[in-house]
Amino acid sequence: MRKLGAMDYAVCYQSKVGKLEWIGPSAEEEIKRAGEDGVSVVVVPVAFVSEHSETLVELDIEYRNFANKCGVKGYFRVPALGVHPEFINALAWLVESTRLYPNCSNPLGRQCPKEFGKCGFREWRSS
Question: Apex CA 14: angle with CA 21 and CA 56, to 5°?
Answer without folding.
Answer: 155
